[in-house]
């Protein structure tokens, strides 16, 4: 299923008219009040409605006509996962951000919501009395509303593939959309973005970083990487909290039909498997005798993220030097750009997802604008390019 921003079945103000209109739907009066105050303090967004149940949201959608909905999962009368398809049926381009506490059940529902058309998810803190948890929730929520809402107003979104369901049918390779024409990419001050030649160093490891829109992008990409995974280690950092990464690893294993799991501190890094940074921990690689091993770090957030991409990218240089291929997929912010610069300086290569196929062109855009990319490609062309590079093609 797509992220479902294409086409608007309701009438109302044009997409670029005024602040983003946000509908907050949560049965907790405390959470509704908190989110509403945060939104009200921003110059580019406003609270269009604050509602207690999914049923109220469905019944009042045409009248409210929001751009973005923050939708709780657990509510009386009509819960979030049941309200989601009804809201999208009434307004297909509504940006829906699912909100839930960190339980396995809610994480599974959030993944299901992505496959049904939700744009993203956000974990709610167990208690808003914990200042650090509330600060992270505040920062992440406002950024997601701003960036996903801005993308909606700029142009229709490119369809994203679904997450792999837990059924035997999911083992069939995902159908990949025909490639869209590559857009002309413009840097703020230097005209058309340029790419650098691929390094002559043969890659010995694949590193991937992603954030907003990443679960869908990763599911599509790993289905095409079987030959690479069989012969080389693949390490992934996806901005995601604990419990969610556990479930993402399970989805990656089903989609790729290869071993995939959250990385464990001290375990050796070997070909034939996917290592996923666990939520709440930075994943680095260190030397262990003649081999590489996982090192998990409980240090402070990097680029507002934990796990973050930069620590993985930078640490890998001590192990593989210039024999690194890194891929930066869709996501907010600039995480991965600094580590990507270090990889290029060491002789490795960086590929970035292009703007048209990204849910948010923050992370890959930062790398592209920094001039460190050897290729800037649509999502459905990245897998084939990665396979060719690991097979010896350096063009």
TrEMBL record:
PTM: Phosphorylated by CheA. Phosphorylation of the N-terminal regulatory domain activates the methylesterase activity.
Catalysed conversion reaction: [protein]-L-glutamate 5-O-methyl ester + H2O = L-glutamyl-[protein] + methanol + H(+); L-glutaminyl-[protein] + H2O = L-glutamyl-[protein] + NH4(+)
Cellular location(s): Cytoplasm
EC number(s) reported in the record: 3.1.1.61, 3.5.1.44
Domain CheB-type methylesterase: 197-386
Modified residues (4-aspartylphosphate): 72
Keywords: Chemotaxis, Cytoplasm, Hydrolase, Phosphoprotein
Superkingdom, natural source: Bacteria
Catalytic residues, chain numbering: 211, 239, 335
Major localization listed first in the record, in broad terms: cytoplasm
Domain Response regulatory: residue ranges: 21-139
Top-level enzyme category: hydrolase
CDD domains associated with the record: CheB_Rec, REC_CheB-like
Functional note: Involved in chemotaxis. Part of a chemotaxis signal transduction system that modulates chemotaxis in response to various stimuli. Catalyzes the demethylation of specific methylglutamate residues introduced into the chemoreceptors (methyl-accepting chemotaxis proteins or MCP) by CheR. Also mediates the irreversible deamidation of specific glutamine residues to glutamic acid.
Family the entry assigns: Belongs to the CheB family.
Domain comment as written in the entry: Contains a C-terminal catalytic domain, and an N-terminal region which modulates catalytic activity.
Name listed for the protein in its UniProt record: Protein-glutamate methylesterase/protein-glutamine glutaminase
Organism: Bradyrhizobium barranii
Gene this protein is translated from: cheB
């Amino acid at each position: 299923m797509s992220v479902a921003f294409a086409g608007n079945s309701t009438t109302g103000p044009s997409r670029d008219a005024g602040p983003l209109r946000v509908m907050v739907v949560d049965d907790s009066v405390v959470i509704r009040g908190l989110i509403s105050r945060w939104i009200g303090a921003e110059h580019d967004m406003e609270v269009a409605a604050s509602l207690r149940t999914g049923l109220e949201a469905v019944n009042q959608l045409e009248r409210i006509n929001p751009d973005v909905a923050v939708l709780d999962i657990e509510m009386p009368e009509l819960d979030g996962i049941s309200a989601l398809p009804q809201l999208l049926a009434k307004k297909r381009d509504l940006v829906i951000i699912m909100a839930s506490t960190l339980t396995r059940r809610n994480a599974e529902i959030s993944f299901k919501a992505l496959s049904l058309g939700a744009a993203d998810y956000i974990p709610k803190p167990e208690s808003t009395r914990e200042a650090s948890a509330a600060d992270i929730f505040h920062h992440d929520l406002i950024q997601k509303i701003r960036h996903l809402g801005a993308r909606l107003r700029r142009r229709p979104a490119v369809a994203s593939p679904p997450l792999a369901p837990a059924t035997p049918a999911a083992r069939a390779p995902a159908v990949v959309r025909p490639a869209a024409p590559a857009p002309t990419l413009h840097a703020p001050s230097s005209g058309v973005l340029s790419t650098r030649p691929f390094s002559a160093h043969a890659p010995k490891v694949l590193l991937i970083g992603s954030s907003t829109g990443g679960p869908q992008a990763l599911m599509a990409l790993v289905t095409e990487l079987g030959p690479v995974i069989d012969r080389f280690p693949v390490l992934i950092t996806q901005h995601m909290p604990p419990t969610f990464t556990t479930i993402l690893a399970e989805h990656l294993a089903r989609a790729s039909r290869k071993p995939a799991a959250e990385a464990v501190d001290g375990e050796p890094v070997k070909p034939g498997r996917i290592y996923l940074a666990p939520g709440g921990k930075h994943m680095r690689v260190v030397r262990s005798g003649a081999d590489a091993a996982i090192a998990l770090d409980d240090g402070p957030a990097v680029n507002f993220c934990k796990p973050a991409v930069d620590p993985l990218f930078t640490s890998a240089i001590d192990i593989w030097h210039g024999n690194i291929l890194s891929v930066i997929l869709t996501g907010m912010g600039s995480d991965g750009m600094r580590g990507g610069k270090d990889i290029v300086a060491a002789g490795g290569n960086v590929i970035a997802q292009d703007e048209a196929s990204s849910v948010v062109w923050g992370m890959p855009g930062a790398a592209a604008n920094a001039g460190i990319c050897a290729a800037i490609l649509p999502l459905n062309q990245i897998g084939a390019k990665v396979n060719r590079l690991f097979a010896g093609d350096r063009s």
